[in-house]
Amino acid sequence: MKLWLQALGMCQSMFCAIPSPWQGWEEKAREKMLLCLPLVGLEIGLLWWGLGVLSRYLPPLMAGAVLAGWPWLATGFLHLDGFMDVMDAVRSCRSLERRREILKDSHVGAFAVIGCLLLGLGQFACCGSLNNAPLGLLALVPVVSRCCAVLAVNGLEPMQTSQYANCEKKKSGRILPGVMLLAALAAGFVLFGMWGLVLAVQVLCFALALGRAYRSLGGMNGDISGYCITLSELFACAALAAGQILN
């Protein structure tokens, strides 16, 4: 149990800007760290839901800005950075070697700027339109995106330059996040009825984004994970906003 708490603290320190009560690094907990990512997502999601409830008392534009910005602020813009790196690399349409060089380049290119601008506008518009949607679903959106990310990292071939290249892959690295993903999807349908389809749409969008980036870059890494998390959460918000039309 102690190792799992240490792994959770390590995971939160690395992938979340919210302060963790468990500090320090324990090498023995390293292999469990990534498996704790959905729990970090649940923490972010519950706070997102809470902000959504409070935002009901704000003007629509202010509420949209708060809800749109929270997932990026909560992660210290880590996944947004991955989104921008992958946008520059994939949209460059260069050779595989050159795309990988662009992926590692710290400079920001035009495709990253344009992509980030469109992403921000889209998320702001969707989050500002959640007038009658069940905001409780926001608690599950970051869980689903991170379960998918863990499955992708543990199931796909990593790039040689990735931090996951030398990690030993075990069945538990796919079984546990798979079970958590199914539990999150089931919770969506049990608690919110047909609104649970929002999470199914999110999984589909994650898979499509992952397939595009993975094929283009010839491997999996943390930037691709961030890219897919960011896009899937945008489309979850879009599905949540669009679902109001059908109800």
* Order of secondary-structure elements: HHHHHHHHHHH
User: Could you say which overall geometry the principal axes of the C-alpha atoms support?
Assistant: globular
Largest sheet: none
Our measurement of the CA-to-CA distance between the termini, rounded to an integer number of angstroms, reads 44 Å
Low-confidence spans: none
- Give the integer mean of the pLDDT values: 90
Q: Beta-strand level of the residues, as a percent range?
A: under 5%
Number of strands: 0
Domain count: 1
Number of helices: 11
Derived structural class = mainly alpha
Helix content: over 70%
What is Rg? 18 Å
Explain what you see.
This protein is mostly helical and about 250 residues long. It has one domain (about 35-245). About 70% of the residues lie in helices and about 0% in strands. It contains 11 helices and no strands. It has helices at about 1-15, 30-35, 35-55, 60-75, 80-90, 95-105, 110-125, 140-155, 170-190, 195-215, 220-245. Helix 4 packs across helix 7. The model has no long low-confidence stretch (mean pLDDT about 90).
SSE topology:
Layout: H1 2-15, H2 30-33, H3 37-55, H4 60-74, H5 78-91, H6 96-104, H7 110-127, H8 141-155, H9 172-192, H10 197-217, H11 222-246
Descriptive keywords:
0% strand, single chain, globular, 247 residues, mainly alpha, 71% helix, 11 helices
